[in-house]
């Protein structure tokens, strides 16, 4: 397994083609300022023909062509604020010495389900940090958006709406940023996946290139996992209709003058922490789990429910745990489409847009904790089989040995290290159909210019905001 501190082709080492492309953009500014708005870098997530188009929000705070955008990521395991600043070409420019302000704190909003005001208050320190980096005279033109993901999705509409309302009130009273009620929402999973795809491909300098030159993105959160990659138009036309209540499989995006057909699916309850509950339910026939490390007797709490989570008398077993995970993933569920990933969900048809996979969030974190990538690296090249090997090692341990073997793993997570790694391997190989030997890139941050930017959905949202003004 190799490690890269610098990503080939990333950052601002533009090729001649890129520069020609950018110069073309400048020409367009001169020749057709109105057309520019829709041509240069307009992110327009659209539902397929016939469905209503998602409105674009207001613009970003601007000065001398610079625009700021403040995006809150209300994730299931923590809240984070990102502040970005774009120039007139919608390239990122420095905020002080960095290219992004990024501050995070735990727990997430959903941990305050009983007290919406306290949930909102948990964002105050992040708001203050964001204010520090946006010049005072630009704050009232600088939009602030809040996107909540799987944590609030799982709380249900009533509770999550109360929390969101408290956040809207707080932003109106305390933020001094440009705020609007409909800018504080629960993101649907496909929107989250699409933004993440835009983030990574923007940072890699891929936008404007053909779909085959983009990378596919997998984002394993706590509550849900997203797969997003560009597919050819002819495949998009054949996309099956989603089941009732599900988002459509294909989003049409217009970015840097290029139309992309993005296959996106978000699997709710298959984020790493949510999947533990599914695995415990699937495998708990005898009151114990084949995935829990020897020496652990306990229960696992997730989303207001409690599950028995005690080790089997013989401890954890890679192969038996894997069978439980396959069951939890519903790999064999009837597939009414051409080809499915798992749970009867269309797999998008694969192809060149999925050849290079960038895999984010918990995939990176667990790989670092299991010690097969450097936790300080921004990206690392691995294969699914690296997760298999790490899982086989972890599943042989008891909790005490695991605690000393994996000093980076939080105490609460130690009994689940076998389960998590088996899940990650099985999700990639049996779920998404990735070859165990296929090289892929684990990503935490992407090098851009002389800095690093978080590989997370908020930049995609900021690009939408900044390009719509
Ligand atoms: O902006 C980010 N930077 C670094 N890591 C992130 C970021 N956003 C999410 N993560 C990682 O993703 C994992 C959990 O994701 P999150 O709390 O966002 O769950 P969710 O997406 O299911 O709501 C954590 O391991 C966290 O470290
Ligand atoms: Ca997330």
Automatic annotation (TrEMBL):
The active site annotation covers 192 (proton acceptor)
Q: Which reaction does it catalyse?
A: a ribonucleoside 5'-triphosphate + 2 H2O = a ribonucleoside 5'-phosphate + 2 phosphate + 2 H(+)
Q: Which organism is it from?
A: Triticum aestivum (Wheat)
Q: Which GO terms describe its molecular function?
A: apyrase activity; ATP binding; nucleoside diphosphate phosphatase activity
Source taxonomy: Eukaryota, Viridiplantae, Streptophyta, Embryophyta, Tracheophyta
A GO term (biological process) for this protein? nucleoside diphosphate catabolic process
Q: Keyword Cell division, does the record have it?
A: no
Its Enzyme Commission number? 3.6.1.5
What Gene3D superfamilies does the database record attribute to this sequence? Answer: 3.30.420.40, Exopolyphosphatase. Domain 2 (3.30.420.150)
Q: What is this protein called?
A: apyrase
**Where located?**
Membrane
* Family that this chain belongs to: Belongs to the GDA1/CD39 NTPase family.
Role this protein plays = Catalyzes the hydrolysis of phosphoanhydride bonds of nucleoside tri- and di-phosphates.
């Amino acid at each position: 397994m190799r490690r890269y501190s610098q990503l080939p082709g990333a950052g601002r080492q533009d090729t001649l083609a890129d520069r020609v492309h950018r110069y073309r953009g400048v020409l367009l500014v001169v020749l057709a300022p109105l057309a520019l708005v829709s041509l240069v870098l307009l992110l327009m997530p659209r539902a397929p023909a016939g469905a209503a188009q998602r409105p674009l929000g207001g613009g970003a705070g601007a000065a001398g062509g610079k625009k700021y955008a403040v995006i809150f990521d209300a994730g299931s395991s923590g809240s984070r604020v990102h502040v970005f600043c774009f120039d007139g070409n919608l390239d990122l420019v420095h905020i002080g010495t960095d290219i992004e302000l990024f501050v995070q704190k735990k727990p997430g909003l959903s941990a305050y389900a009983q007290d919406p005001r306290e949930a909102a208050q948990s964002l105050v320190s992040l708001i203050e940090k964001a204010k520090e980096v946006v010049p005072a005279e630009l704050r009232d033109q600088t939009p602030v958006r809040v996107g909540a993901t799987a944590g609030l999705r799982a709380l249900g509409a009533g509770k999550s709406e109360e929390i969101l309302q408290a956040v809207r009130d707080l932003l109106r009273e305390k933020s001094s940023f440009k705020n609007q009620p409909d800018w504080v929402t629960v993101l649907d999973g496909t929107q989250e996946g699409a933004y993440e795809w835009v983030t990574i491909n923007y940072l890699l300098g891929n936008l404007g290139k053909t779909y085959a030159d983009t990378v596919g993105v997998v984002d394993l959160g706590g509550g849900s996992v997203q797969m997003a990659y560009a597919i050819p138009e002819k495949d998009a036309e054949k996309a099956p209709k989603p089941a009732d209540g599900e988002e459509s499989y294909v989003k049409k995006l217009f970015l840097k003058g290029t139309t992309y057909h993005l296959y996106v699916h978000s699997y709710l309850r298959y984020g790493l922490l949510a999947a533990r509950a599914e695995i415990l339910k699937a495998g708990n026939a005898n009151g114990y789990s084949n995935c829990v490390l020897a020496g652990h007797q306990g229960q696992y709490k997730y989303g207001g429910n409690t599950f028995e989570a005690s080790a089997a008398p013989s401890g954890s077993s890679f192969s038996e745990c894997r069978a439980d995970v396959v069951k939890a993933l519903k790999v064999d569920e009837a597939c009414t489409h051409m080809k499915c990933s798992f749970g009867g969900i269309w797999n998008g048809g694969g192809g060149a847009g999925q050849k290079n996979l960038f895999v984010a969030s918990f995939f990176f974190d667990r790989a670092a904790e299991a010690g097969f990538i450097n936790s300080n690296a921004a990206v690392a090249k691995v294969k699914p089989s690296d997760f298999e090997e790490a899982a086989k090692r972890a599943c042989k341990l008891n909790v005490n040995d695991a605690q000393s073997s994996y000093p980076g793993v939080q105490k609460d997570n130690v009994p689940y290290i076998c389960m998590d790694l088996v899940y990650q391997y099985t999700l990639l190989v049996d779920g998404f159909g990735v070859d165990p030997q296929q090289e892929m890139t684990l990503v935490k941050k992407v090098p851009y210019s002389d800095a690093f930017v978080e590989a997370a959905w908020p930049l995609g949202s900021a690009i939408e905001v900044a390009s719509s003004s």
